[in-house]
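Rotation project, supervised by the postdoc (A.L.). Task for the rotation student: set up a whole-complex structure prediction and record inputs and outputs verbatim in this book. Inputs entered:
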Amino acid sequence: MKSFRNAILTPTRRATLGLGAGAAATLIGAPYVLRRARAQGDFDWQRFAGEHLEVFLSKNPRSALLQEHEAEFVELTGITVGSEQVPEQQHRQKQVIEFTSGATSFDVTMTAYHVQKRLFAKGGWLEDLRPFLDNPELTPPDYDFADFSAGAVAYATQADGRMDTVPFNIDPWIVYWNQDLFAEAGIAYPDTFDGMLEAAKAIHAPDKGVYGVVSRGLKNANTPVWTGLMLGWDMEAVDAEGNLTTTSPEAIAAAELYKTLNADYAPEGVVGFNWNECQTSFMQGTVGMWIDGLGFAKPLEDSATSKVAGKVGYGIFPAGPTARHSPLFGSGLGVSAFSPRKEAAFLYCAWATNKVNQIRMLQSGAGAPCRNSAIFDPEVLASLAFPEQWAETLVESARIARPGLPVIIPVSEFRDIYGVALSNMISGADPADELARATEQFRPVLEKSERA
Amino acid sequence: MSVEAPAGIALGRSGNPAVRRWQYLLFAAPALVAVFLVIVFPWAFTVFMSMHDWGVVGSRTYVGADNFLRLLSDSRFIESIGHTLYFTALAIVLPVVLGVFAAVVFHRSFPMRGVLRAIFIMPMMATPVAIALVWTMMFHPQLGVLNYLLTSVGLPPSLWVYSPTTVIPALVLVEVWHWTPLVMLIVLGGLASLPTEPYESALIDGASAWQMFRHITLPLVMPFIMVAVIIRAIDALKTFDTIFVITQGGPGTASETINIFLYLQAFAFYDIGYASAVVVVFFVIIVVFSLILLWARQRTLWVVDN
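Outputs recorded:
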């Protein structure tokens, strides 16, 4: 567990950039470097020409990008593709329903690591991709698996070593801040949780319609905010032994901070806000800080819809009392274990996560890719349409990133049960009481999931 | 010349009663099969699943009444019953009262009545999810038009669906806007079918407009109102889309109805056994509710006294 934390997204090949590479990180990537080195020779992209693939994607700008360039894959391989983007929640449900039916309408699908990793492993629903990656007839020689950041590879690897997806994107959380409001209050972007609280206090003026901070209050969506804050106490919601730490003093302190930020310094009604309501409030220029994933630069910098375009500061998640981490989320692409065209499906995954597509993701602001060649290439970073600070924050956040949600099977239940508790806190309930009650409710669910 | 039935028919009609019963059954069989497949089997299977620990992965084990006992001690489920009843009561009463009022108004003749009627029933034609998304924007405490309207006439802003205390009435507001026109249509049809004689004699006897409404219109139109109540009750009990889209059952669990709770158990937690138990209990609640409504409807029917 410890090595995993250190390894998260530390670059393995570009350690010279001074971003710090852990030995553990290198170890995770090493076997693939060797295997890939052997993968030379003429690669036959057309070997599955004439086949047809169904690709089932979650709706987001990154999937849209894949669809936009789909013709490139069709031309390269002669494989025809039918792809579909479905809103996140429905996407996850449909996957489970299809997988449990024992036959899937799709060959390739997108997986959210922070929600589905353990569930999919338990179901054995995705094909282990290691044999494919080892097979020079299936993996293009320029695919260069070692280019994937060690942290992303670790995130994609199951506890038993299976790799049922290739990493697609990561989403570390940052703090967007309104430079005008900070200047008016005469303060700088805070480095610590205490500083964040003071900044929120200094900016907050509800009579004038100005609020200190905004973050998700809607149940379920709000849980990562709290578990993200907990990382500042060097604490995850489920420890390495699988025990819940959700009633620990650190968990309560994080919940109290969450409550203070949202109940005292956020817009009224934040209890019903998901990220989109937060984004809308922040884009109006009336909120000092917004805590969320780093993929929102594009709408925020769009002067047609955003009043804060050109005035957004991109801040690294502040440090807690004992640690500084950026809560990490991410997704990968996998091949359905029920697909009759697994090899062709893998070719799609290999194409979708190749260097060109990963750089495209970064350049369009659709998200943060998993390849070091995209994240750490100065040329790529210089070509971005977004402020330099965004790119710097991305690189540094990736370096200090750590999973934002526990890697357990019942993630949905975890998010729902603790999400209700957090919502109740915003409406006035006591953090310690609510966490105790939620833990009492959740513990049997977790235990059952481990037993079954 | 004596008339004799053709031999074939005579055999079919007057043959052995047992044979005749089989012949009838033959005709009913397709319908029976359909009913069995789409109603009886799913129902029985739900009951079967409700007695199992049934997840999407892992083994399925028989647990007897465990799921039902768990429901009894699940405060969130008990609360969801309360929320469902509260929501349903408001979502029946308000549209029915307003719908009857609107029907009485639109029953009178005045200029542009046809156009105004058409405009009034327009909300009914909109898609619930689209409506819910629009209302979500209107409910926004800082940026929504509702608070803008309130504050521009000097009233304090409301938190609408963003506060545990106002969320259910605010959600009912959407229902009222959406479904009052339906009640109006049903009652308007009833009003058009009423005889005019009672009104003539009431006028001769010197009854006031209110007296005529209270003692003639209302009793006569009551069977139609009951139809509207039954339709509203069915719709309100099964409301899912608007609540799910606008609040997802929140803040916290303040607007979590049985449907939302059920959906969560089945499709977010994949706890199929437990969700089936919820369905069984919900089914019992609906049966009881239907019996009460049917009894009420019987009481309002016109009694033709020959």
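Student's summary: The longest helix of chain A spans residues 431-451.
Supervisor addendum: The first strand of chain A starts at residue 52 and ends at 58.
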